[in-house]
Amino acid sequence: MTRIRVAAAALSTVLMLGVLAVAQAQSTAAPAAPGATMAKRPGDAGQSWRINFDRTAKADGVLHFRIWPYGADPIDIKIPVAKGQTENAMARITSDTFSDTLDNNDYRTDVKKNVAFLMAVHGNRRFALELVEKPEGTDIDLYRGGR
Fold first, then answer.
1. Mean pLDDT to the nearest integer, 26-48
2. Buried b (16+ CB within 10 A) or exposed e, 120-141
């Protein structure tokens, strides 16, 4: 009986720390615009996402991604893009911005040529990724599942 109580106490402590870590991650990332919380959550969610960039930007613009963590408000990430920026450069800056903005305890990023990867760290819930805005002349495709 004592082992069960010890195990239950340990489990409740781990769960409490997990909730605190999620709360801290929510407070450090950029919250979505007020209207975004009213937007409909995308139905497609996964542990990892592959963002495939194709074509050079033909005009200045913004890459606007919205990340929908499980059971939390969405997080908006806006990345400025200059005219003439290549697909490889856009993939690199997207990966770097995700890494700088999101909690590294919850998400991991990587990049290979013109593909950026966003992955939930082992044990974290699935999340949805949405492309809200992109610069003129670029083709950007989101694929659930990565590497």
1. 61
2. beeebeebbbbebebbeebebe
